[in-house]
Each structure stands twice: as structure tokens, then as C-alpha cells.
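USER: Write out one fold?

ASSISTANT:
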Amino acid sequence: MKHAPHALRIGDAPPLSELTGIRLGGKPVAEIVLQGKAGVEKLPDLVAELGGLPAVIGKGSNIIAADGDLPLVLIRQETREKASFARHGAEVRVTAPAGLPLPVLLNAAAAAGLGGLEGLAGIPGSVGGAVAMNAGSFGTEIGSLLRSLTVFSPRLGLREIRTGAEQSGDSFKCLGPLIGEDVFRPCPEHSGERGKGGEGRTLPVGSAATEFSYRRARCLGLPFGSPAPAAGDFPVLLLEAVFALSESEKDTVRGRMRAFSAEKRLRQPISAASAGCVFKNPAPDAPAGRLLEEAGMKGRALGGMRFSSLHAGFLVNEGGGSCAAALELIDTAVEAVRRHSGFILEKEVCLWVGH
């Protein structure tokens, strides 16, 4: 194998059951740990030499992976960098590496007296994972606070992308589904920017190129991260994100974070082994948890897996659970809700199965 740059560490991968919040998943082929931007352009060749499908993982808080041996090469980011702050007009810009745990970013913002992220209190995972899923809670979606991203993929190279909000202040839009179409479909406004020779360029990106929808994000027609690793795909790897926050009283920010965290603890099984909410809310007035409860799925169990008795939207591994049991319960839940209310639930978790 070619010599890996110093910032890339190649090694044996632990089972995904040790890396995911729901404690499920078999053993990948290998893992590459990225410790900075240096050498990131070597990733595609290294993955190909290792002989697996590239699978980006953050803190694994929303992944349900198959059992057994998996043909995956994990790409994982570690960072010792902290969030940095710089004034930009009336805003304060916060730059955070993708591998930074989201709670660490929220605490740093609170300590600096910066508001805007409080609604995300209690959400696990990394900054990169939160952006990829457009994490949100209590009226806050992380995509609405983004101003720029630094990303890498073979088709984009290493590139900074300014978000649509940076250009016009408009809200983010989703112009197409993340899964179920050709993920390499060119975006009409930027199809000429792909391929070789584009490395290091800065693109002003409108909603047609950086798309944030309910619990999903895309970049120039490619998915962030690895919602479903597949042959021929190399996902957009998010390396750094810049957010716009506003100045506030430290005690006010911390108080809001405590209140939001307390409400989550009261209503959600946040200490249990889970992948968070399994399904998206199909409509603002039809939360998935309520639909599941009304369909009789609250507390339903199978093979060590159970839909939580505290919040029916959470699938919990009670010990000894399997991916097969999880998928069977998920399928049962979709059918139960369809029959009871007519809604077709769409999964919010990432399923790494069927390779």
C-alpha cells in the first residue's frame, strides 16, 4: 500500500457495535482516521487499496448497521482543534472542525456568550454529523446558521463552499430527495465546476447546490457522509463548518441549554442505547412518535430491540439486540402506522445494510 500522509492513520476497525449509539453493527474491513486536512486527497486511493466501500462516521449516533463482516472502510475524523471565533459585521462567526463533538461546540458558544445553537442541546454526535443530518430541535435547525463549509470529494477536490444564506439570507431549500436518484446528477448551475482543476476554489452556492431539508443535507448533488455506502460512490466529506451566531448573555444561553436538555431527559430515552428518532415527522401536526404510539408500537419488542416506552419514536437496544431484529421492528412499525393513520413514515436513521 502507498505510504499514507502523516495526518491519516490506517488501522484495524473496531466493530460498529462499539462505535454506534445503538450498539449494533459488524466489523468493517479497516478504518482511516483523519487528523486534519493534510493528505485528504489521498483518501479515495487508500480506500480503493483497502478494498472496501467508503463509509464516513462521526459519533455514530444515527446509524443502524448490519451484523457480521462488512465490506466497509470507515473514514473517521479526530480533532484536537477547538472552535474559533471572529467578528463579521453584526455577527460572530464560529469555525468548528467536523470532528468536534456537538456538545463541545455548544458549550464553547455558551462560554463566549453566543446564542443561536441552544435548541440543539442534548443532541449527541459530531459537528459534521449534525450538518449532514441538518440536526434540529426546539425550532432550531443547524443548516439555518451555516455560512460556509470546507468539503472534500474526488469530484469537488478540497473546497470552501459558501452557503445560500451567506449569499442572500434566504432559507435553505431541498430541490430533490437524497436517496433514490442518481447522486452524481449535475446541478445545472454548477455542472461546469466539477472534475479536475477545481481544487482550492471558492464557490458561492445557492440552494441549488447546497440543499438543506428536514434532516438531510446535500452538496452539489452529492450526499454528505454515508447515508448508504454503495459501490462507485465517494461521499462528500465535511471537514469544517462556519456558523453565524449572535451575542447574548452567557447566563441566558446556558439557562436555555439547561432547560432544553432537561425537557429532552424528561421525554426521551437519551441514556439508552439508541440511534435517536427512527422516523421523520411526516407533517408538522403529525409527529412520528405520536403516530407510532397510536398504532400500538410503543413498547413493542423483538429480539432485544424495543420501541421505547418513554418515546415511541426511539428504537432501543436493551442488550443482545441485532440489526435483523431492528429492521423487522422498523418494517412492522411502518406498516402499522400506514394501516392506522395512512401516513407513510420515512426513516431518519441511516441504514448501513444490504451491501
